[in-house]
Design a protein that fits this description.
12% strand, alpha+beta, 297 residues, single chain, rod-shaped, four-stranded antiparallel sheet, Endonuclease I-creI, 2 domains, 8 strands
Length: 297
């Protein structure tokens, strides 16, 4: 079962309060495949969604939509109200001038009714990606004006969505993990919201570990490269009988590095007979490298 199916099954399990039932049914129908006098229907690959659609319409209007199953590769379920008189009865409850192009806010008696409405809309046309792969939630809305109204409604509750125009629909979407969490919380999918938060925490922990590892690797590489340059300079000066003519402080640093080729600067400071700081030792070794490079030119 996909993450999206799990989210929708959690939403379906919510039993709306009495005041929320009409707005829940309305959101379900308005954002379904069709919502007009000619046809009221929904199409989905999730049988539970089709059953929930039929259940809430019967609960509110005492009308039973018919479910048809098709699809050669994957099953597709279409729930449809076939009777003209039944469709007219449903549309009579809505501001007829609104139809499929905008939202009739008369259904929103309380704030909870808006949540139920958006829950129905998400079940009808929503999708959400597995947070392990990508943070993304979207609504595939059948026309632009309706998409704009849904976007405004969501923004009133602090949920900002972007808009993308497709061939046959308008997509409202967000890739922000916080917006995905807010959306799921708003429509009632609390368990899956916690799953996303847990996933985000685990991703951050893994990223921090990887960053630390990469940082350690870079530091090791820099230490090795610096050690090689220092040893090359010291070996050259020793072969050309110039090592012991260096000033005493540089000679001490050179012998420390020569006798401890794989040690870090901190380790060299620890084994030094005289007190040395890492920055002081590094400064001396860099001077030796400069002498070597100048001589090589």
């Amino acid at each position: 079962m996909s993450f999206c199916e799990e989210v929708k099954n959690e939403l379906i399990a919510i039993r709306p309060q009495g005041c929320c039932k009409p707005s829940y049914a309305y959101g379900f129908m308005l954002f379904g495949r069709s919502f007009s006098l000619k046809k009221i229907s929904i199409q989905t690959g999730n049988q539970n969604v089709a059953n929930a659609y039929c259940e809430i319409i019967y609960n509110v209007y005492k009308i039973k939509p018919q479910i048809f199953c098709g699809g050669s590769v994957r099953p597709t379920y279409r729930a449809e109200i076939e009777s003209d008189s039944d469709r007219l009865k449903i549309l009579a409850s809505v501001d007829f001038g609104v139809a499929e192009n905008s939202i009739d806010r008369n259904f929103f008696i309380r704030d909870c009714c808006e949540s139920a409405f958006v829950r129905g809309a998400f079940l009808a046309c929503g999708n959400i990606n597995d947070p392990q792969k990508e943070y993304r939630a979207e609504f595939n809305v059948k026309n632009g004006p309706l998409a704009d109204e849904l976007s405004c409604l969501l923004e009133e509750h602090g949920i900002k969505m972007r808009k993308a125009i497709r061939k046959t629909s308008v997509c409202l979407y967000t890739k922000e993990s916080s917006a995905v969490e807010d959306l799921l919380t708003f429509i009632g999918a609390g368990k899956k919201t916690l799953d996303i938060i847990d996933t985000k925490i685990m991703k951050e922990v893994k990223n921090n570990i990887n960053r630390a590892r990469n940082c350690d690797s870079k530091n090791i590489s820099k230490t090795v490269e610096a050690s090689i340059r220092q040893r090359t300079a010291i070996e050259y000066l020793e072969k050309t009988d110039r090592l012991y003519s260096l000033p005493q402080e540089l000679l001490t640093a050179a012998l420390l590095r020569r006798d401890n080729p794989d040690a870090t600067l901190k380790e060299l400071c620890r084994v030094s007979a005289e007190p040395l700081t890492v920055s002081g030792l590094n400064h001396r070794l860099n001077k030796i490298i400069l002498i070597y490079e100048k001589d090589k030119k």
